[in-house]
Write a structure and sequence with these properties.
6 strands, four-stranded antiparallel sheet, 3 helices, Alpha-Beta Plaits, 98 residues
């Protein structure tokens, strides 16, 4: 995979209460990813950036909400989320990522 594409696929980590629970229980990490990214691209990107082995990737699209403002209605953008399962005994430290 192209080195430039590696950085385009992963937008950043998704930090939420559910993501923290999943990370503790199932050794999974949640990332915001590009809408056009595939599971294989996500897997290769995480393995290259964080030097870990990925066993499974689950993705879902989060539909943008419709918000009302003084000009009428607007829609927040739709984005994609990926649950990345790591091999046993592996973890990701976001502070020391290269």
């Amino acid at each position: 995979m192209n080195q430039e594409r590696v950085f385009q696929v992963l937008v950043g980590p998704h930090v939420s209460e559910k993501a923290a629970i999943v990370a503790d229980d199932n050794n999974q990490y949640v990332f915001k990813v590009a809408v056009d990214a595939t599971k294989t691209e996500i897997k290769k990107s995480v393995e290259q950036l964080f030097k870990v082995t990925v066993t499974d990737v689950n993705t879902l699209k989060v539909k943008g909400k419709v918000k009302r403002n003084r000009y009428g209605f607007s829609t927040k953008p739709t984005w994609k989320k990926a649950y990345v399962t790591l091999g046993p005994g592996q973890d990701i430290d976001f502070a020391s990522a290269e």
